[in-house]
Amino acid sequence: MADTRDRLLTATAELFRRQGYNGTSVKQVTTAAHAPFGSLYHHFPGGKEELAEAVIRTSGDAYQQLFELIYAGAADPASAVTDFFDGAALVLEETDYVDACPIGTVALEVASTNDRLRAATADVFAGWMHAASSRLQSAGIPPGQAAALATTMVAAIEGGFMLSRAARSPEPMRSVGRLVRQLVVAALAEAAASTR
Amino acid sequence: MADTRDRLLTATAELFRRQGYNGTSVKQVTTAAHAPFGSLYHHFPGGKEELAEAVIRTSGDAYQQLFELIYAGAADPASAVTDFFDGAALVLEETDYVDACPIGTVALEVASTNDRLRAATADVFAGWMHAASSRLQSAGIPPGQAAALATTMVAAIEGGFMLSRAARSPEPMRSVGRLVRQLVVAALAEAAASTR
DNA sequence: TCGGGTCTAGAGCGATCACTCTAATAGAGT
DNA sequence: ACTCTATTAGAGTGATCGCTCTAGACCCGA
Known about the structure:
In chain A, 81% of the residues lie in helices and 0% in strands. In chain A, helix 1 packs across helix 2 (26-32). By secondary structure, chain A is an all-alpha fold.
């Protein structure tokens, strides 16, 4: 069945979120996925590392789609930012500060210890930044500025997750979102002024 | 000797930086610290967890002192921000992206799995934000706005570490720093305008 | 010179780690 | 009905995990 593979991926993503890469054992994964132990090594012959890379890339894509969905539903780039940060804050609150970015914890863990996984996280971050950057450019912000703004948005989201989870409070995420919104508003105003 | 304890703390901080809490074994710690294995449990009877808490708190204090040092040497709050972010970017570059925040990785790892360590990281972050906030208030920014700005600074630093380490590039940290500086400049201008 | 703490030193403990191996089963094509 | 491949199933592997335990070394006041 192909869905054993999917169950392994989603169970691993869930576990990575709350306890990271090193804190998650393969036994835990197969138990949570209701999958036989041997199946993990059938679907991911490279073992834990291959599983982790697949989780990083698929979770990264899923998160990007969430971003695009929110962006599409928002009136303008500035309110998209608010929707995204406030939405993340709300989800954190409702899930007891567990349901955060499935990439962030792993990204820091592997950055200096596993180049394959490090590269996978870098690809995911680059994809997010590219998506955000092109939206901002479509709204009239020049490429260089849009890229810097997109980088800051991603950094702020990840930093917001860290602070909100540590403090067990949605406030850091919301505060950060308001200031990122301010940056977007300023960039849009500047762009509008220069094209006039 | 009290300095065995210190060697254990600094060696652990170094290891936590590059491989996190779960990725660091106590055997590794004692080897790196050139300390006998038994000494770890003499100085930290609570074992790995007690050691980790001590590392979180002492490293947090050390980082705060670094911030205050940079702030004291800067001409104004805005250039202090630039100095801090660009300094972090430079250190990352020079240390092969290893010498980042010793708290960040651990904070995400333990946020949902170890309440004692989670509380320690929350205390450290709160200390940093309080320090930054009071500096900003001294520069004339109202308390609520200063607190939000301080939160965003810390989130941006941590997010910048994550992106720069993943991409193995100092650029994300620098880009984020420039935009955080812009927020500080705007807040200072607003404060100056309102007191006139 | 002698006790009595502090600290060093590392062998050894059960538990758990990621992973391998063999065997049974399922399902599709002929 | 009969393969043949894909997948399930889990016992068993050596290595490593955090930690305990005992024994010796060191230092200081009496």
